[in-house]
Amino acid sequence: MIIGIGTVVNVATVLAGSVLGVLIGHRLSHRTRDLVTDALGLVTLLIAITSALTVGDAVLSGAVGDSAPVLIVLGAMLIGGITGSLLRFEQRLEGLGAWMQHRFSRGDNESTFVEGFVSASMVFCVGPLTFLGALSDGLGRGADQLFLKSVLDGFASIAFAASLGWGVAASALVVLVVQGLMTAVGALLGDVLPEAHVTALGATGGLLLIGVALRLLKIKQIAVADLLPALIVAPLLVQLLVVIRN
């Protein structure tokens, strides 16, 4: 199978779902579109909690000790959040969305476009399937995980675009860049992360998705993009503890 085909299919489903969602969205009342977004927020919360609970996985505990996994995730969130805040990731991502809205959109309200772009980008790119699937594809192990993610993202993009418009389609660019880079990493570096490191990454990603769900449910506008460096910090902290324990 061609390396990278999983990301190509994923981008295609996001674009197709976004077009369909916009077409459907114009035929739905504002109340119905809000309800669709709330439903998507609840489903995102369910997926996020499931991912976050992997912090108790035996593989991770065996590598770093029983009391360390939660501390690793905490440390990753704090260090990653401070780093992302200093680098202004959230502001830069919103700025990119605003530029794309000005460049390509002809009818959407700017704030709606940006919210659609940012929220969809986070949902499509933060989950464990993004990194695990892209790495597996790059390693030549197949793109089955990304094909599954493509189906999920396709349905999610319909729901997003029905409520938030063309900004969701713009998130396909982020999917292409993020998953493309991770696929390249897998192809160039081989098996990058041991299982314990991947588990820590998945648990941290689950927490970030909870932040996305809270945004979608309009509970709190957490700057999730500023927390993205935590996905890099978590495996590094695992490696640090593994070295110390050995």
From TrEMBL:
Keywords recorded for this protein, A-Z: Membrane, Transmembrane, Transmembrane helix
Keyword Lipid biosynthesis (UniProt): no
Record keyword Lyase present: no
Alphabetized Pfam families for the sequence: DUF554 (PF04474)
Residue stretches spanning the membrane: 6-24, 36-56, 68-87, 113-135, 155-178, 198-217, 223-244
PANTHER family hit by this protein: INNER MEMBRANE PROTEIN, INNER MEMBRANE PROTEIN-RELATED
Protein name: DUF554 domain-containing protein
